[in-house]
Structure formats: C-alpha cells, structure tokens
Structure prediction request, 364 residues.
Amino acid sequence: MIFNVIGMGLAGAWTSYWLMKRGCIVHAFDVYNSESSTRIAAGLITPITGQRVKPSWKFAELFAESLIAYRDVEQQVLMQFGEKVELIRTVELLRIFKNVEQREYYEKRAAGNELSGIQHQFVESGFHNGISFPFGGFSTNDAAVVNLPLFLESIERLIVANGGHISRTECFANTEASLVASRTASAAEIPTVTCTGYKILQDERWNWLPVETSKGEILDAMIGNSMDSEAPGAALVNVLNAGTWIVPMPNGEIRIGATNDWDDVSEVITDKARVTLQTDAESMLGSKVSVLRQRAAIRPSTGLKRPIAGRHPDFKDQYVCTGFGAKGTLQGPWVCNQLIRHIFDATPLNTEIDAQQWWPENKG
Prediction:
C-alpha cells in the first residue's frame, strides 16, 4: 500500500516510519530546509517543565515509548545499512529553581504525587559541581537528547531503501491542483497524511485546526573563550534548565534555548533573544559564553499544548498530524503511532489529540 506523507519534520518522519513498519511504501513530499524548527532544535526530552514546574503530559508512557522507538530506528539503520548510529542518549538533567515560588511548586507537586512515575531528586540551595542553585532544584535521569538531523536523515534513507521516494517539491498539500484532487475518488486511492507544521494553516482542508505559531530562537556557543578549557562549566556534561536550557553537544559546543514568542511570525533572529539566552546561560554557568551561531524557526503549537492527529471528516483517506510545539521529540513517536493504529486497526484516538473535535460541526 502506498501513502503520501507531506512534510518531513518530526511528524512526517515518525508517520513515515510507522507506515513502513506496516509494510507501506512512502512517497514523501518535502522542501528541505536546514533551518526548520526540527533541524535546529536541541532534541531535548524533559519530564518536568515550565515556570510552574509541571510534569510533561503523559510523560512516563511517552518517554518509555520514545526510548524504544528511537532505538528501534537505530536498529533498522544497522540492519539495512550496516551502520551504527546513536539517535538518542539519556542524560542527567539539573533543574535550577529561579525563585522561591518554583521551589514551592515543586514541593507541592511532589507531596501531591503529581510527579509519580518520574525519577527526581531534590537539590539543596548552594553550589553543586560548579553550578549555582540559589533556590535549590532537582536532578533527574529521566531525560534524553535526540540527534534530530541524523534522525531525519535516517528516516529518509529508510524510505528510499524500502521502495519509496522523497520529492523535493513545493509543498504538495498546498497546491490548488491537490485541493481539487483530494475531493475526487481517484486521488483517494493514495491516502495522504499532511504533516506541514504551522504551514497547515494555509491549507484549505485543515485551516480549521487550532494550530498557532510559536517562534523559537536558539544559540550555539562555547563556554568561555573557544580555547578556555579552565572556564567554570567548560566540562559540562549535564543538561541544565532554569527556564532557559543548556545542552552539551557531542562536538564540544553547547546549545542554548529556547525563546517562545507567540506574536512574532518571522524567522529573523533578534538581539533581544540573543541577549536573553546569553545572559541566562552565563548566569547558570558562572562563566562567559561565546556565541557562534543564532537561529530562529517557527513551531506549530496549540493553545491547549496538545498535538493534533486524525482523519478529515469530509475528505476520504486524508489525515493530519501536527501541533507538537516544543515537545515533538517526546510526543512524536507515540502520537504518530496512535494515528497509524487508528488508520489500520480502527483503534480510537486519544480524545485529547483527535483532530475531529475541532471540526466546526462537532464543536457544538
């Protein structure tokens, strides 16, 4: 069976992978963009996030499935190409509280069992391994970093190796011809999953979905000067998070991020974001940071902070997967597998992600 998959970010890649696991041939349509939100992201999976120190939605279930899924892709690459790749690595994450309120949120959630199923250890105020915890914090080993560019490259190679192809064309989903074709029985012979991120708002079939744009900016940097191996934190091995996060990268650089701007829909980097991220990083590390690169991209988010997947109510064999926001690395494997199980096994979608709840005729 052949499927069209439109867009090859996290949603498109994971949809393609689960389709191939079902024996399908994938025809992917994607205009390569080295600065897309997926390609510039740090690939960070964290269990507890935000200023209110909230557990990530369905974290225990999604994290367990993510570890299995990314490692399964590693195994497929090894089996089909004879190459060993590391797509996911578990890490220790240190969360630094910025104020008393964050510490109190953490203590309240821990006491109320809201953090059950998540491994975490409270860290007292003070200096730990050269890092300042002015109001305390916590450590957790339930965190991971995914090499997203390598993951996308691996999926595309698997698509081609399994009889599919990648078309580097303008977004197939948004052409007038495809809108007309989607209404015809002949076009329905090739089911299509649209995974075009925030650009789905330009698509007549899906622009009723509550997708919102969220601009994120990140920095690639070095701790201290490029040759300053004695700078505090220069041997950073943990992920740090104090609202702004710092991820040590395999090449010796650090990635700092990410801003979250719901109003600016441009992909232009800003001085404001650079100053904010650099200042936050230097505060955490107790060291100067040398900025090497700054990048910006637009994420597809939703106000309810839930991804969206499902079947179109009117167009036969038309499906969607989008709205991951900053949580796509964690949510992608589970959400896309939910969609494929829904298509092939008629398994009901989780009600919180089902696209049809947003169809105007169903909103009541």
Observations:
- The mean pLDDT is 90.
- The chain has three domains: 2-40+149-210+304-362, 44-146, 212-302.
- The two ends are 36 Å apart (CA to CA).
